[in-house]
Amino acid sequence: QVRLVESGGGLVQPGGSLRLSCAVSGFDVRWASMDWYRQILGKTREFVALLRPSGATKYAESVQGRFNISRDNDKNILYLQMNSLKSEDTAVYFCSAGSIWGQGTQVTVSS
């Protein structure tokens, strides 16, 4: 069964860090084009980062230099390391592989 399950969200203070995980089942993460998106309440979902099978990555300008996307091929997990978090990073974060989406994990950055 093809499935994506995000975890690792939570409440963090500004300047803090979180690592999101996306557990992949039903296909091999190393051969898939994987993305992270986020959705702020009341707004459209926006691109955060991508990781291609080649290892190529791309980031939204708003997170460039603070976030890092990676994968663990052995565990079949996609990660998003988020550093220097800001209040505007507060959102529900989703991982995706084409038309396949996870359920999302809430990240709240607040003091």
In short:
With 111 residues, the chain is mainly beta. 0% of the residues lie in helices and 51% in strands.
Structure description:
The structure is a single chain. The protein has 111 residues and is mainly beta. It has strands spanning 3-7, 10-12, 18-25, 34-39, 46-51, 57-59, 67-72, 77-82, 91-97, 100-101, 105-109. The strands form two sheets. Strands 2, 4, 5, 6, 9, 10 and 11 form a seven-stranded mixed sheet that branches.
Profile the largest sheet: 7 strands, mixed
Shape: globular
Q: With helices defined by DSSP (H or I, 4 residues minimum), what is the helix count?
A: 0
Order of helices and strands: EEEEEEEEEEE
Content-based structural category: mainly beta
Radius of gyration: 13 Å
Low confidence ranges = none
Average the pLDDT over all residues and give the rounded result.
97
Count of DSSP strands: 11
The fraction of residues assigned to DSSP E strands is over 45%
Helix content: under 10%
Distance between the termini: 40 Å
Keywords for this entry:
four-stranded antiparallel beta sheet; mainly beta; seven-stranded mixed beta sheet; 11 strands; 111 residues
SSE topology sketch:
Blueprint (H helix, E strand, L loop, with lengths): L2 E5 L2 E3 L5 E8 L8 E6 L6 E6 L5 E3 L7 E6 L4 E6 L8 E7 L2 E2 L3 E5 L2
Parallel strand pairs: 2-11
Antiparallel strand pairs: 1-3, 3-8, 4-5, 4-9, 5-6, 7-8, 9-10, 9-11
